[in-house]
Each structure stands twice: as structure tokens, then as C-alpha cells.
Write a structure and sequence with these properties.
It contains six helices and ten strands. It starts with a helix and ends in a 7-residue tail after the last strand. The radius of gyration is 18 Å and the shape is globular. 34% of the residues lie in helices and 26% in strands. α2 runs antiparallel to α5 and α5 packs across α6. It is of the alpha+beta class.
């Protein structure tokens, strides 16, 4: 156990799920380990159901035509329906079929973390952070601190922080090519965007924030910042290739 874990209240756990480390940091003194068991059971179920790498997942079976949409699990049908709503809302820049096959992963991660947050709240956990591969859902306080402070990594220098978000209840998602390469494509050209390094979106839901960040990044340096400036309930910070930082008026940073 680390010194940090000895000093801080609550409990912490990290597991590798959905191809990434997921960290649950609970700051409630009376938190029950059973709540974290339920969270990670849920995340493992999501991975088994939605993975594009597991041949027996429902997504893989849908792609192969072995499972009809109407016979899929209700959560699968809901996620795919939400993907279609977001495709229309983003003018096609968020598209679960951008890579040429069905892949709702761009929504599934945030959606599953949002549901994990609800599992914790239903267990009367109020002060926590869930970090899924750098995208985060915050709740309550980072006890003993009054707020959570999250550093947004600079896309060109891992040792630098581009901004610090201070919040009590917020979702934070970043899309860019610096961590996973050119995995975000412009669905209209089928090429990665140029001229933009990263887009960070904050708001009440991680699923929507993540989808918006992906869409804005795919739009590139001209369309993305203009589009995020019109979002309601979500704020964004875009870092261009020349390191210019563009943010909507309410982007919370310290």
C-alpha cells in the first residue's frame, strides 16, 4: 500500500478493464468495498458485451450477422440508439461506423463510467472519482480537499499541464492523437484531422462529453472550436497544432 493510500480517507482500487486501467478513488470514510466490487463487476460485463475484440460479445455477433438488433440486450440497443442520435447531432462527425464497421467504443466507455457513478451513489457513496484511461467522472469532494483538481495533460509534453479543472461534480473527456495515435478519423474523409492536437470537453455526463470531444477533434481546427462554442451545458478547450489554446467562455480551469 502506498503512503498516499495510508493518508487519504476511503478506499481506492485499480483494475485493467476494457483495455485500459480504470481507477476508482472513493473518499468517504464509511465506504464499503462491496460497492467497488459491484462497479468492477459492471465494467467487466460491459467489456464482455460491447468489446469489438471478443468474438462472443454482442457487438461482434451483430457485426457478423449472428445476432439481430431486436434480440440484442436492452443496453446494447440503447447505446446504439444513442450513437445514432449523436451522429445526427454532430453532423456525422461522431459515428460508430467511422472506421467502416460497427464500433460504439467511443460512447461505451463514458456511458459505462456514468453508470458506475450511479452504482456508487446508490451505495450511498458521495465523494469519489472514476478515472477511465484519463477520462474522469467526479463527485463530491476530494476529501480532505474541498474540490477535485484534475490536470489536463499538454498533448506535446507529458510533463506539462495545459489546464487544471477544479470541480465537485463534473465529467471530463479528452480526445487527441498523442496517446493512441491517429485513432480518431473524420468520417467524411476517412482520414485523421490535421491542425489540432487535443479537445477536452467538460459537462454533466461523461458519455456525451467523450462523444463531443471525439466529434470536435474530428472536425479539425476550423470546425471544432466553432461547433463547441455553441454547445449547451458543456464547455471545451481545444489545443491547435501551433499550441494555441481556444476555450469556450465557461471552461473551468485554474
Amino acid at each position: 500500500m502506498s503512503v498516499l493510500a495510508d493518508v487519504l480517507p476511503g478506499i481506492r482500487r485499480v483494475e485493467h478493464v476494457m483495455g485500459m486501467p480504470i481507477v476508482v478513488d472513493v473518499r468517504d470514510d464509511d465506504a464499503d468495498e462491496a460497492a467497488l466490487d459491484e462497479v468492477f463487476d459492471w465494467l467487466r460485463w460491459v467489456d464482455a458485451t460491447f468489446s469489438t475484440y471478443k468474438p462472443d460479445s454482442e457487438i461482434s455477433r451483430l457485426v457478423r450477422g449472428e445476432l439481430a438488433f431486436e434480440d440484442a440486450h436492452s443496453d446494447v440497443r440503447w447505446v446504439l440508439g444513442r450513437c445514432e442520435q449523436l451522429r445526427q447531432e454532430t453532423r456525422g462527425y461522431f459515428d460508430a461506423r467511422a472506421a467502416g464497421t460497427l464500433d460504439p467504443s467511443g460512447l461505451v466507455k463514458g456511458w459505462s463510467v456514468d453508470r458506475a457513478a450511479e452504482i456508487l451513489r446508490q451505495a450511498d457513496v458521495r465523494n469519489f472519482a472514476v478515472n477511465a484511461g484519463g477520462d474522469m467522472r467526479l463527485s463530491g469532494r476530494a476529501i480532505p480537499e474541498l474540490v477535485w483538481r484534475v490536470g489536463i495533460q499538454h498533448p506535446l509534453d507529458r510533463a506539462e499541464i495545459a489546464a487544471v479543472v477544479e470541480a465537485n461534480d463534473l465529467a471530463i473527456a479528452t480526445s487527441g492523437a498523442y496517446a493512441r495515435g491517429d485513432h480518431v478519423l473524420d468520417p467524411h474523409t476517412h482520414r485523421p484531422p490535421h491542425g489540432v492536437l487535443s479537445v477536452t470537453v467538460v459537462g454533466p455526463e461523461l458519455a456525451t462529453a467523450d462523444a463531443y470531444a471525439t466529434a470536435a477533434f474530428a472536425m479539425g481546427p476550423h470546425g471544432g472550436p466553432h461547433w463547441t462554442a455553441r454547445l449547451r451545458g458543456y464547455e471545451a478547450m481545444t489545443i491547435l497544432a501551433d499550441e494555441t489554446v481556444l476555450s469556450t467562455g465557461g471552461f473551468p480551469h485554474g
